[in-house]
Amino acid sequence: MRRDHNDLPKEIQEEGMDFHWDNQKMWSLDIPIEEMDVCKLEWQLDLPFWDHAGSKYNLCPRDVLRDTDSYPDHKERVLNADISCPIDIMENQNGKLEILDGVHRLVCLMLKGKKKVKVRNISREFIPLIEDRSIKTIL
Asked: Is the residue at 139 inside a domain?
């Protein structure tokens, strides 16, 4: 279980990843790129993954998708997202495909009306290779 588990919103406690990962380690993996329907990842847009107005975990990506002008920081990140890079995903502890890196890219693609997304589907077997061990977990 993540060390910060009890500090997370209930939705993320239930649906978020059960470990911390290191993006640099993840990006270095040689994982094939495949194409996937956007709708398979869209469920995550209703989780408060993003920070807003100085508070953590209080903004759902779908809110930004609906009204980008109300969230200028995220609007800029979404509009500048490099959609040539694949989105990194992994099956979470509940068996759902969850984005590890690329939520802003997904929102950008959806704003552009895209129905397909390029992903790297990382197996849970890679957790020991990408886990951020500087952040402790609790049992």
From this structure: no
> According to DSSP H, which parts of the chain are helical?
10-15, 23-27, 61-66, 72-79, 103-111, 127-130
Residue 102 resides in a domain: yes
Residue 56 phi, psi dihedral angles, 5° rounding: -90, 150
pLDDT for residue 3 is more than 60: no
Q: What is the mean pLDDT of the chain?
A: 88
Within 8 A by CB and 6+ apart from 11, the residues are 46, 47, 48
d(Cα 21, Cα 74) in Å, to the nearest integer? 22
Domain of 21, CATH number, reads 3.90.1530
Q: What is the mean pLDDT of residues 4-12?
A: 64
Predicted confidence band of residue 138 (pLDDT cuts 50, 70, 90): very low
